[in-house]
Design brief:
Blueprint (H helix, E strand, L loop, with lengths): L11 H6 L5 H5 L4 E8 L3 E8 L9 H8 L14 E13 L8 E13 L6 E10 L4 H18 L2 H11 L9 E6 L2 E6 L30 H4 L7 H10 L3 E4 L3 H14 L8 E3 L9 H5 L10 E5 L4 H4 L5 E4 L27 E2 L12 H13 L11 E4 L9 H6 L1 E2 L4 H27 L29 H11 L3 H4 L6 H10 L3 H26 L2 H5 L4 H20 L6 H19 L3 H8 L2 H8 L8 H9 L1
Parallel strand pairs: 8-10, 8-11, 9-10
Antiparallel strand pairs: 1-2, 1-5, 3-4, 4-5, 6-7, 11-13, 12-14
Helix pairs in contact: 4-5, 14-16, 19-20
C-alpha cells in the first residue's frame, strides 16, 4: 500500500499573501476542493469550496453534498465516550455542466466523531476532491494529507493545497509522475487516458505493476477475500457488460469493490457506466426506479449501502454483497472464530482452499448454498453476508493454481497489509493475462503491415481485414480457444465471445483498437518513406511505374505540407525528404513528360522551391515559363 509522506505546508500570512492558483492550471487536475458538513437542521451543506464558484452550475453543490456522506451515521463505531472514525471512498456521476455525457469523480475523506456531549451524540464532515480524472491512486494520497489538514487548520487548507496542485505539470496519463506537495512529493503512476488503446491484444504487457486500466490501486484481494471463487464469474460479468449491484455496509467498502471490478478487465476498455457509491439523490435514480416490471436493466455497476435499493432496483440480475459490518476490520474469519492463517502465532501462510469450499463436498455447505439462493439478495435486509446472486452461467473456471499462491496473513494488521499487496499482484497479473488471452483472437483484425523489401512505400497501405462477427465466431470455433483459455474454460466457451460481441464493451474497444492500428500503420509507412533510397528504387522501375511514383510522392508531399503547420523538426525533415524524392523521380522521367508535368504552375513552384537542384531542371522551368 502507498505510504503517506510527511508533509509541511506553509500557512499563515505567507499563504494569505501568495498569489491565487492559476484556474486553468488547477483545472487540469481538479474541479474543486470542498468541505461538506452535516447539519442537524439543514442536512448536508457545502461549508467551504475552492475555487468558490466551482459548484455553482447545475445543482452540482447538492450532488456533491449528498454523495459525500454514508447513508446514516455508522452504528458500528466503538462505544467509547469519544471516538473518531475516518474513511476514504469515491463516487461518480454525470457532469451536469457538460453538454456531452462526461463524468465527474469525487474522492472523499469522511470523519465521523462520536461524542456524547454533542447533539445526537456525534458529528461528521467530509473533505472532497472533485475531478474529471479517475486518478484514484493520486487523490487518495492527496486526501490523506488534505483531510487531516482541514480538521487541523480549517478551510484555508483548501486554497493552500490547491496552490500546490496548480503548480504541478500537466497530467501525463500512463506515465509515472513525481508531484511536489509541501516538503514532500507524491510518486504515482497515472492510468492511461481513455483514448489510449493499450497494448496490442496479442501481447501480454511486460510489467503488470504498471496500470493498463482504471483503478489499478484497488485492493482487489481485501474487497473480495470471502468471494475469491466468484472472481472469475465477476470477471465475465464485467467483460460482457452485465448490470451488477454491489452491496456493502459502508461507502468505503462498496466503492473499493466497484473499483476492483472495473480493474479486473484491464487492458479492455470498460465502457459500461459505473457508480462506486450510488445514492437515492443520484440524478439517474428516478429513471432506474421507474423501470417497468420485466424491463431490462441497463448495463451499469452500482455500489450501494442503502438496502432500499434491493427492493427498488430488484430487476438487476446480478447482486454481490461484500465487506464486513465492522469498519475496523474487513477480514472474515471462518466459523469458530479461528484465524485463516496457518502459520504459528498468526504468521503468514498459504490460503487454504478448503476454507473456500473448493476441495471438498459438504452437505451443510450445499444446504446453506441452496438456502442462500432461495432467499435471494433480500436476505441482506436481516443479516449482512458476503455472497453472489446471479442467473448468469459462467464459462470460465476458477484457477486453483492462482488461489494456491495467495498468502494468508494471520491476525497481524501490518503483515496483512503487506500480504494484500502480494496477493493483489498475483490476482492482477492473472486477470491481466486472462483478459489479454481472451482478446488475442481479435489480433489479426488489428495487425499492421509494412512495405515488403524492394517494394514502393508510396502506394496506399493495405486496409485492415474487415471484421464480420459470424465469420469470426466460425473461424474461432475451427481454431479453438488456444492453450491458455482451453485449460480454464468450459465447453461452452464460444458463448462468452458471442455475449462479448453483443455487449456494450466490444464495439468501443474494437473501434479504438482499430483506429490505433490504422494510425500505427500510417506511421510505419511514413517511416518507410523517410528511409527509402529513391534513386535505387527508381532504377528498378518501368517508365509507367516511375510516373505513378512521381504522382504518389507529390500527393504525400502536399499532405505532409498541410499537416506541418506546427513546424516541428520532424515535419520539416519529412517535407525536405519528400521534395528530394520528388525531384529524384522527376529527373528520370522522359523530357516530354517533364514538360507536361511542369505545365501545371503549382507543380512547377513546388519543384522549384526545393533547395536541391536537378540537372537540367532550371532550363526546363524557364522554357515552360516563356
Amino acid at each position: 500500500m502507498n505510504r503517506i509522506p510527511s508533509v509541511s505546508l506553509r500557512g499563515g500570512a505567507d499563504a494569505a499573501a501568495a498569489a491565487p492558483p492559476d484556474p486553468a492550471a488547477l483545472a487540469r487536475w481538479a474541479r474543486a476542493f470542498c468541505v461538506i458538513r452535516f447539519d442537524l437542521e439543514r442536512g448536508q451543506l457545502v461549508e467551504a469550496c475552492y475555487p468558490p464558484d466551482a459548484l455553482a452550475a447545475g445543482g452540482l453543490d447538492r450532488l456533491v453534498a449528498f454523495s459525500s456522506f454514508p447513508d446514516s451515521m455508522s452504528h458500528h463505531l466503538p462505544r467509547h465516550r469519544s471516538s473518531v472514525h475516518d474513511s476514504l471512498f469515491s463516487f461518480r456521476f454525470p457532469d451536469p455542466s457538460s453538454p456531452r455525457r462526461a463524468f465527474l469523480y469525487g474522492f472523499v475523506f469522511n470523519r465521523q466523531r462520536q461524542d456524547e456531549r454533542l447533539p445526537r451524540g456525534g458529528e461528521q464532515k467530509s473533505v472532497v476532491i472533485l475531478s474529471h480524472a479517475p486518478y484514484s491512486s493520486l487523490f487518495r494520497l492527496l486526501l490523506q494529507i488534505l483531510g487531516p489538514l482541514c480538521f487541523d487548520v480549517g478551510p484555508s487548507a483548501l486554497a493552500m493545497v490547491a496552490s500546490h496542485v496548480a503548480a504541478w505539470p500537466a497530467p501525463a496519463p500512463g506515465r509515472p509522475m513525481e508531484l511536489p506537495i509541501g516538503s514532500a512529493a507524491l510518486r504515482v503512476h497515472l492510468p492511461p487516458a481513455a483514448d489510449d488503446p493499450g497494448p496490442p491484444p496479442a501481447l501480454l504487457p511486460a510489467n503488470p505493476s504498471v496500470p493498463y486500466g482504471l483503478f489499478h490501486d484497488a485492493d482487489l484481494f481485501s474487497a473480495f477475500r470471502s468471494l475469491l471463487l466468484h472472481l472469475w464469474t465477476l470477471w465475465e460479468l464485467m467483460v460482457v457488460g452485465e448490470p451488477v449491484m454491489v452491496v456493502a455496509p459502508s461507502p468505503a467498502q462498496c466503492s473499493e469493490a466497484v473499483a476492483g471490478l472495473v480493474s479486473l478487465v484491464a487492458p479492455l476498455l470498460y465502457s459500461v457506466d459505473f457508480r462506486p457509491y450510488f445514492t437515492i439523490h443520484d440524478p439517474d435514480f428516478a429513471r432506474l426506479n421507474a423501470l417497468a416490471e420485466g424491463e431490462v436493466f441497463p448495463p451499469m455497476v452500482l455500489g450501494v449501502t442503502n438496502l432500499f435499493f434491493l427492493k427498488s432496483l430488484k430487476s438487476i440480475p446480478n447482486v454481490v454483497s461484500v465487506g464486513s459490518p465492522n469498519p475496523n476490520s474487513t477480514r472474515v474469519l471462518p466459523a469458530g472464530g479461528q484465524s485463516q492463517g496457518n502459520g504459528a502465532n498468526g504468521t503468514p501462510g498459504k490460503l487454504k482452499l478448503d476454507k473456500l469450499a473448493i476441495n471438498k463436498f459438504s452437505p451443510t455447505g450445499l444446504l446453506n448454498s441452496i438456502k442462500l439462493r432461495r432467499e435471494g439478495p433480500l436476505s441482506l435486509m436481516t443479516e449482512h453476508k458476503e455472497a453472489l446472486w446471479s442467473t448468469y452461467a459462467p464459462t470460465t473456471k476458477p484457477d486453483t493454481s492462482v488461489l494456491n499462491r495467495l498468502i494468508d496473513a494471520g491476525m497481524s494488521p501490518r503483515v496483512e497489509e503487506s500480504m494484500s499487496v502480494v496477493n493483489n499482484e498475483i490476482l492482477r497479473r492473472h486477470f491481466l493475462e486472462l483478459t489479454t488471452n481472451f482478446l488475442a483472437p481479435f489480433g489479426p483484425y488489428l495487425r499492421t503491415t509494412t512495405p515488403s523489401e524492394g517494394s514502393s512505400p508510396f502506394v496506399d497501405p493495405p486496409l485492415l481485414p474487415p471484421f464480420h462477427a459470424d465469420e469470426f465466431i466460425n473461424g474461432l470455433a475451427a481454431r479453438g480457444p488456444g492453450k491458455f483459455l482451453s485449460k480454464r474454460m468450459r465447453s461452452n466457451w464460444l458463448d462468452l465471445y458471442r455475449r462479448f460481441l453483443e455487449g456494450p464493451n466490444f464495439m468501443p474497444w474494437f473501434r479504438q483498437r482499430r483506429a490505433a492500428a490504422e494510425q500505427e500503420q500510417q506511421r510505419l509507412w511514413r517511416q518507410a518513406r523517410m528511409n527509402i533510397d529513391m534513386g535505387k528504387l527508381m532504377s528498378k522501375m518501368t517508365e509507367l511505374e516511375r510516373i505513378d511514383s512521381f504522382n504518389a510522392i507529390e500527393r504525400y508531399l502536399l499532405r505532409e505540407m498541410e499537416n506541418s503547420g506546427a513546424g516541428t523538426a520532424d515535419s520539416v525533415a519529412a517535407c525536405q525528404k519528400l521534395k528530394g524524392d520528388l525531384q529524384a523521380a522527376f529527373s528520370v522521367l522522359p523530357k516530354d513528360m517533364q514538360q507536361l508535368l511542369l505545365s501545371n504552375p503549382k507543380r512547377a513552384v513546388l519543384l522549384q522551391a526545393s533547395q536541391e537542384k536537378v540537372p537540367g531542371f532550371d532550363g526546363i522551368v524557364s522554357q515552360t515559363s516563356l
